[in-house]
Design goal:
Residues 274-299 form the SHOCT domain. It is built from 8 helices and 12 strands. It has helices spanning 2-19, 55-62, 80-89, 91-96, 145-152, 194-197, 270-283, 289-301, and strands spanning 27-29, 37-42, 51-52, 66-68, 75-76, 101-109, 120-129, 132-142, 173-175, 180-182, 189-193, 240-241. It folds into 2 domains: 19-245, no CATH class; 267-303.
């Protein structure tokens, strides 16, 4: 009994250790059930910060970003739940960010929105430059810290992306389309013209067309050398006010069809979740074959 108590105490201490240091100054935890947070990071940049957005404007912009995993069908980089949380929690950070600040984020989601699926993480940085919202992705559908720790015995390193070089082995590729453009042919960097995007509602599905795969990209280096034009309604030193989106045309909705009964999938066991996670880590090059076989044998032994 004493041994069991000691084991539980050690597990609790490990959880505290894993979460300590995750939050810092200017960090907002977005959902207590996950590792989600947003925070400011001082960088060597001249962003158009501060910027005042509304939740609807940020939701419009973030909903335009799409990704492709392997050869799968394009899908939103952020789930609807991530967009809802980010559009609220990013507001105060953009409003107080300085030109030398980037806004970092870590968000979690369940693939397909299915409750029984293990959480996955997206991480990166956001900043406004030359009137465009930029997203530099550092993680795409990676394992959360605690799940990674259980599978490998190591802490999950968080990658927020970098202007200097692309992320090696990221789990997806960002796509041009829906008003978003790839920057400098990098699969981890997307840019959206704010004024143009907010003039209309974001498409409900991916509309990339031929331009998305033609190599056509947005290249900041070709912009004029003059000082960047401020966003609409700038009143220094007051924050930049993002433009208000034009009202969307009314849509005539047809009567909803009768819902179909869907049988829920059987939940995965902890061992199955750990084996699936372990294989994903190996496929993404985060652990080598020897580590994979060692961890897999340990999990199978406990069955």
């Amino acid at each position: 009994m004493q041994h069991a108590f000691s084991t539980r105490l050690a597990s609790f201490a490990a959880c505290l250790f894993l979460s300590s240091g995750a939050l810092a100054i200017d960090t907002t935890k977005m959902w207590s059930e996950s590792d989600d947070y947003v925070k400011l990071e001082a960088v060597n940049a001249t962003n158009n910060h501060p910027v005042v957005f509304s939740p609807e404007q940020l939701s419009n912009l973030l909903s335009r970003i799409y990704k492709r995993e392997d050869d799968k069908t394009p899908q939103p980089y952020f789930s609807a739940n991530e967009v809802e949380r980010l559009s609220r929690n990013l507001l105060p950070l953009f409003a107080k960010a300085q030109p030398g600040d980037d806004v970092q984020f870590v968000t979690s989601f369940r693939p397909g929105g299915l409750f029984f699926m293990a959480r996955e993480l997206n991480a990166g940085r956001l900043f406004v430059e030359n009137g465009r919202l930029n997203l530099l992705a550092g993680m795409c559908g990676d394992a959360p810290d605690l799940a990674y720790y259980h599978a490998t015995g190591n802490r999950r390193p968080i990658n927020h992306g970098s202007r200097i070089k692309p992320v090696n082995g990221m789990g997806c590729t960002l796509l041009s389309g829906n008003g978003a453009e790839i920057v400098n042919n990098r699969p981890d960097w997307i840019s959206i013209d704010i004024s143009t995007a907010l003039a209309s509602e974001p498409p409900k599905t991916y509309q990339g067309g031929a331009a998305a795969d033609s190599g056509t990209t947005f290249k900041p280096a070709t912009l004029p050398a003059a000082a960047p034009a401020p966003l609409p309604s700038v009143a220094a030193p007051a924050p930049v006010a993002a433009p208000v989106a034009a009202p969307a045309a009314p849509v005539t909705q047809s009567a909803p069809s009768a819902p179909q009964a869907v049988l829920p999938a059987a939940p995965l066991s902890k061992a199955e979740e750990r084996l699936m996670l372990l294989k994903r880590l190996k496929d993404n090059g985060l652990i080598n074959d020897a580590e994979y076989e060692q961890k897999r044998a340990a999990i199978v032994k406990d069955l």
